[in-house]
Amino acid sequence: MSDDDDLFGGTGETRTRLPERGGADGYGPGRRPGRPGGRAPSRSLVTVVGVVVLLIAAIAFANRDNSSSDGGGGRGDGKGTEAAPTAPTGEKPVSGRNGGIASGFAKSEQGVQSATANYAVALGSADMFDEEQRHRIVDTVYTPQAAATRRPGLDKVYNNKSFLNRIGLRDDGTAPSGTTFISRIIPVGTKVTKFDGNSATVEIWYSSLFGLAGEDTKNPVTESWFTNTYDMRWSGGDWKVADFKQQDGPVPVGRDQRASTADDMAKAVEEYGGFTYAR
User: Fold this and answer.
1) C-beta separation of 65 from 87 below 8 A
2) 243 in a domain, yes or no?
3) What is the per-residue pLDDT across 103-116, written as a single tens digit (0 to 9) for each?
4) Structural domain total, the chain
5) Domain presence at residue 168
6) What is the reported pLDDT for 84?
7) What domain range includes position 147?
8) What digits encode the pLDDT tens for the residues 181-211?
9) How far is C-alpha 174 from the chain's CA centre?
């Protein structure tokens, strides 16, 4: 692994492992063929029964949470071992914006979780590959001290032509003609493991889409899973990132689904906007 890879992995941006190419459109293996002589109705029946069981379990779980939840976020019973439901807390959702990034989060566990999720999305976005946009994001989500420390390292990575070429981009960080560059983080959940009012430690589990959507690309869009741990500080009237670390997974088992075409993937990312995440 090169020094550039180490820098990139340590800045909060997703490190992507490309799968073996096997699909007709370069996006991975297609649907596995059915077993000769297999009985499709039996498999369908099992699927239907499984869905019904899951629905019943989900309804029971929802009813239990509604009856016992205290509306808190992050730590459940205070020990950090249970997932807190995303339920009404009585706090107004964030309405502020700072350079397109949500801001003005509540000084609470719910507020710091929301800040962490929104900042992770910004740090993992394609905007980080544009110098002006990158500086705006860094100055918005990091504490002033952390921003000053991080900016030189981030610029070194994102301006490195060798690194950009390896992931399929031009020397200036733009996508080649006929392709769409995709870099997007989708938070699955957050958890507060430490909170003392002015600082917090928050874990965020998320999936990441990264690559180039295009018919002839050698770097197709793939999905990865990570958990980041953020050290958050209350600074200047809002939550800011002081530091963080990243680890792989948890990674779910992939379903037997056919990969979409490059055109469908590019259109989906262009047509479906991101969310403002809030507890």
Assistant:
1) yes
2) yes
3) 999 999 999 999 99
4) 1
5) yes
6) 57
7) 1-16+97-279
8) 999 999 999 999 999 999 999 999 999 999 9
9) 21
